[in-house]
Amino acid sequence: xxxxxxxxxxxxxxxxxxxxxxxxxxxxxxxxxxxxxxxxxxxxxxxxxxxxxxxxxxxxxxxxxxxxxxxxxxxxxxxxxxxxxxxxxxxxxxxxxxxxxxxxxxxxxxxxxxxxxxxxxxxxxxxxxxxxxxxxxxxxxxxxxxxxxxxxxxxxxxxxxxxxxxxxxxxxxxxxxxxxxxxxxxxxx
Amino acid sequence: xxxxxxxxxxxxxxxxxxxxxxxxxxxxxxxxxxxxxxxxxxxxxxxxxxxxxxxxxxxxxxxxxxxxxxxxxxxxxxxxxxxxxxxxxxxxxxxxxxxxxxxxxxxxxxxxxxxxxxxxxxxxxxxxxxxxxxxxxxxxxxxxxxxxxxxxxxxxxxxxxxxxxxxxxxxxxxxxxxxxxxxxxxxxx
DNA sequence: AAGAAAAATTAAGCTGGTTTAAGAAAGTTA
DNA sequence: TAACTTTCTTAAACCAGCTTAATTTTTCTT
Lengths: 189, 189
Hints:
Two copies of one chain form a homodimer.
Chain A: H1 4-11, H2 18-25, E1 29-33, E2 38-40, E3 48-54, E4 57-62, E5 68-74, E6 79-80, H3 83-88, E7 95-98, E8 102-108, H4 109-118, H5 121-146, H6 149-159, H7 161-166, H8 169-176, H9 180-188
Antiparallel strand pairs in A: 1-8, 2-7, 3-6, 3-8, 4-5, 4-7
Chain A binds a DNA duplex through residues 148-150, 168-170, 178-185, 187-188.
């Protein structure tokens, strides 16, 4: 089924019946997108939370000089949106788009709240997801402060070698906070 | 009562009885600390989650050159720990210490889980807390990529003028990712 | 209130990483 | 398989922000 990735993921966090999982899954829309499709536009109201079943999404923004800067990648089993904008139903700070052809589940803010009201056990699921994600984001802030740009790349390549193969180099540079030119120079060494 | 700050904070997120709040509060230890007291040591197991009733805490690490780098401040009504280390019961990546004389509530990992089991409604509370905190951490990563060090300081000063007054300048520099010398130079302009 | 310690300032020299610009390689389309 | 587009590489000039080190100011301790 097209929503198996999500229900399997939930099962790793909760003890829950198949019947409930089916009902929970029904809150989500399933859709496939070709690569480089924009799902959320910056400045537009952010009313969707995404779960990646297959493929890869990114959130990015355009800096003062017009260069896109990647904030987050989301691959299989990751959640992605502009979380602040989503919860406040404000305009998004980020563009969200597919990096690869992708299968994506989405839920609107009102459906998300309905889901949490009807299945309070999902509070536990999202609490766990956000707890980890928040901890990881703070670790990223630590890394940004600790490592030089060169070290950032080398560490990342050692930690996620398959992912480095998977995304274009200019996106990786953007995510790691250096220029494609400098990344290219580092690789030469 | 010494735990009012917490119970009041919970009330802003949940509809809940006073009796339950009293029971929930009983899971926490209340303690006061003088400024510059270390509550968690890096490399030691992280088994406490803190809620700041009064005062200010920071989490920081020591970089390769021996300089402390502040990752997070926590003032009244903020939660603080090394969230990844806490949930995995691993050694902390950060030192956590008081910046001011502070009143702090704390809970161990096992008590935290007991609390969530006995009062599932607290899943909703923490889900909301972490959802916001995660969103904010990603916005910080955006800011780090967007702004020059000078802009970082000016933006922060405009957004949190009272906080800039409140903490020593060298800690602010550390948090914003620049040297005290450079911050001093920026202020002169 | 004096002395010690911690924090903030100033200034000069230096460097990691950016900018710019052009060409090479790889991928896509017809 | 040629033409077009996107991505990657190379190299030189440049600069935001760091390092170092000495001085001054503020805060803490007794």
